[in-house]
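Section 3.1: Structural characterization of target chains.
Under the original work plan, the team committed to producing a structural model for every single-chain target entering the pipeline before any wet-lab resources were allocated. The record below documents one such target. The sequence was received from the expression subgroup and is listed exactly as submitted; it comprises 145 residues.
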Amino acid sequence: MPTDRAVQTIEVDAPLDRVLATLRDVEGQVEWIPEILEAELLEVYEADDLPATARFKASATVGTDQYTLAYEHSDTGMSWTMLQGRMQTGQEGVYELEPLDGKRTNVTYDLTIHHNLPLPGFVRNKVIKGLVSSTLNGLKSHLEQ
């Protein structure tokens, strides 16, 4: 089973709390992640009302995928694992935030995808790096407009 991973960091002109709130608004991700076609929050944690699980429909180079993610939260980020997927057999991801000066934040996005797609490694590598880049650039544009 192929596994692909990409990591990228971008500086965003927004404070950490605003960036984190934007990331945690999983249904709002359709506004700034071009590949996300639909997002539905399924459950929240009772203690803090943060996202626990969500279902997504996303466009991919090889078609449309549907998957469900489970989230964990920290003061400086959010991570997830895939519970169920159609094209993917697994997914792990994390957004880690680093405040720079109270007005700017470094956002690191680390994404790993497991799948059974019969694509050459260089194609898969280009796809996942493009997805991570597209997501971070979408976040930056959304927060800085």
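The first strand starts at residue 3 and ends at 12.
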